[in-house]
Hints:
Elements: H1 18-34, H2 39-52, E1 57-62, E2 65-70, E3 77-80, H3 90-104, H4 110-121, H5 129-146, H6 151-171, H7 175-178, H8 181-199, H9 205-212, H10 219-230, H11 234-262, H12 281-295, H13 303-324, H14 326-348, H15 353-360, H16 366-377, H17 381-408
Amino acid sequence: MTQGVIRVDEPKPPTDNKADAEIFLVECARTLHRFGAPAHVLEAELMRTGSRLGLAVQIFSLPTYPAISIGPLDRQRTFHLRVDPGFIQLSSRDTMHAIQRQVLEGDLTCAQGTRAFRELHLRPNDFGLLWQMLAYGLSAAAAARFFSGGIREIMASAILGMMIGTLVVLLNMRRDRAAVTEFIAGILATMGAWMIAWIVPPIGTNIVVLASIVSLLPGYTLTTSLTEVATRNLASGGSRFVGAAMTLLALGFGVAIGDKIVEHLPAIQNIVSEPLLPWTILPAAFSIAFAMLILLQAKIRDSFIILCAVLLGLYGARFGAVLVGPQLGVCIGAFLVSLTGNIFSHVTKRSPNMVIAPGLIPLVPGSLGMRGASALFHNDAASGASWAIAALVVAGSLVAGLLAANVFVPPRRTA
């Protein structure tokens, strides 16, 4: 069995010693994983980095367990890392790539790079609780508009979104409580929608419930899992897919429990208010962009880039829907976003995720999967299966667009 090592022309930078280079590579893997790199990206990055450092590397990555083997097959050292699933942090990912480049270009030693990575892990969140509450509220309000809600649904979704955002931040402070976040959020969304509809009727509670939990829906995780499967990272893709399914089930179970409780409360007027004019889509897109800036941990200076990415994804998908229908039209939106992200990366030498993540998140099929899970909990298996298949079709369409864009403009190598 031969072990492939990527051949590159760049010279190897000076390092302290082989042990420092190995530890730097391990910290590079930990950092990439923590900041949301999928398995195929993590593997490619580490293979190239190892080659630049003169190390033979083999990677096995799962959402909670990357293993890095370094050295020839007969003298390998293997490092096992038990980690939590990573999430996207755009500014930290940019900083991580800058540190990586400095080490490979010889501006920093491997030991200094390792220390910089560990300091990056300790960096506090750029946005505090109040900002995160605002982001959850804005994303919920924008989602209510995209779900054809009126002004009452938008206001109710914003209020509930901020409440659920506060709950998420507080529960995630402790690992033992984080596991029940989605379940409790589903109950809170249903009960809160009923309460608001009881105080200021009428309100379309179905729209409010779905919009208020939209930031918790695992549509991006589902799309990432299918991308990993498509790139032959079957173990990681399968594990991530199961994780996304469990998140949907927890949310759906919480909503179902809330519905059962509401059945024993006074009846409300579940009527959707008059929809807004078409031009209000644009303010909703601005709200999503600002929410993405906070939730994806970007810098204020990148707000215009994120806004352009959101608009490109939304209107690219709308253009695609005119051509081939709504479920397949998102493929064109994903293609345009990914193509632009790769070009942006080549021009600015920054991570393409700065464009791709905020551009794709408004397109992912989390709401379709949630409707499927909710239908299953209400004993409507036919509708549940239909919604689930629709979610898979949309996710597959997004993956096709992403991979097609990588053929036309390959992602820039950061190592």
